[in-house]
Write a structure and sequence with these properties.
Oligomer: single chain
CATH architecture of the largest domain: 3-Layer(aba) Sandwich
Largest sheet: 7 strands, mixed
Order of helices and strands: HHHEEHEHEHEEEEHEHEEEEH
Mean pLDDT: 89
Distance between the termini: 62 Å
Radius of gyration: 26 Å
Number of strands: 13
């Protein structure tokens, strides 16, 4: 079995036409047909069948096709890793991030690293808190940024990069909108708009309300940051969100107010796999992270 046979099969299956597949592969049609025939002989099954003027993948061929795609994908990933070892300031970094960290500092961080390593490529994967943890564990991504940083994951290495406050977002006509700060208990009778159950930022918000002595009245929910901000802008309710999500701007018709008591905070950091050696390109980026946020902390002081 040869790699070109797998590539030829995938191309024909996608285009459903040998001639078009051959043209796209820049090889002779006879070569494509011959290699697929050899592959069928080796496997002892028909992978393709003619239906009218088109070529269709057979049922067993469709099963094999998925494995062929997976094999080529794995080999491409292996090639990328070798390239990363040969060129630590190049290659591709597979990085995960949640929506709450994508608005301000993640773009700035990547921009800063591109100045140091202009040849590196980033493959960024947005995902939920639970998805990103599992994706790092199973090797789907190299590392992930999370807030808060998980502390009870034995298969992960964790590093806290900074801590940030959770603040209140109010509609601009809210009675407390002109306050310099407020006690969270001042909002005990308000309607809240939060992430759905299962989202980590919802738990942070609800836990903060519990610490203030009340159960929040959750009137509406949204699955992303912009949705929640939009609901507050519309006057549907108030919300508790990370301060960094407002660094660029506060949404129209809203006011951001710090919480005096009880202080609500979250850790923000990076997770990497504990039982896998990371490539030199990943190590370089990881070290850059530590230095980058160390400089930011010194600047704040």
């Amino acid at each position: 079995m040869e790699l070109r046979q797998l590539r030829y099969l995938i191309e024909v299956a996608e285009r459903q036409h040998v001639t078009e597949a051959a043209e796209n592969l820049n090889v002779a049609q006879s070569a494509v047909s011959y290699q697929i025939t050899k592959l069928e002989e080796e496997l002892g099954v028909k992978l393709l069948e003619r239906v009218g003027r088109n070529i269709k993948i057979t049922q067993v061929g469709n099963i094999f096709l998925e494995f062929a795609k997976g094999a080529l994908k794995t080999l491409e990933e292996g090639k990328e890793k070798v390239e990363e070892y040969l060129n630590p300031l190049g290659g591709t970094l597979h990085i995960g991030y949640p929506s709450s960290l994508s608005i301000y500092w993640l773009p700035n961080l990547i921009s800063a690293y591109k100045k140091v390593a202009p040849n590196v490529n980033f493959h960024l994967r947005h995902g939920s808190y639970a998805y990103l943890i599992n994706a790092v564990k199973n090797g789907e991504i190299d590392l992930a940024f999370l807030g808060p940083v998980p502390l009870k994951e034995p298969d992960l290495e964790t590093k806290i990069l900074f801590m940030e406050n959770i603040v209140v977002l109010l509609p601009e006509h809210h009675p407390l909108a002109d306050r310099k700060s407020l006690y969270l208990s001042d909002l005990r009778t308000d309607r809240f708009v939060l992430f759905p159950d299962g989202y980590v930022l919802r738990k942070i918000a609800v836990d903060a309300c519990h610490a203030a002595g009340f159960e929040p009245n959750i009137a509406s929910e949204g699955e992303d940051m912009d949705a929640l901000k939009g609901l507050v802008s519309a006057g549907i309710g108030v919300s508790l969100l990370p301060e960094s999500t407002f660094y660029d701007s506060v949404p129209r018709f809203t006011v951001k107010v710090p919480i005096e008591m009880p202080k609500a905070m979250r850790t923000v950091g990076v997770i990497t796999p504990k039982h896998r050696d990371i490539a030199p390109s990943e190590k370089n980026f990881y070290q850059f992270l530590i230095e980058y946020f160390s400089r930011l902390e010194q600047y704040k002081q």
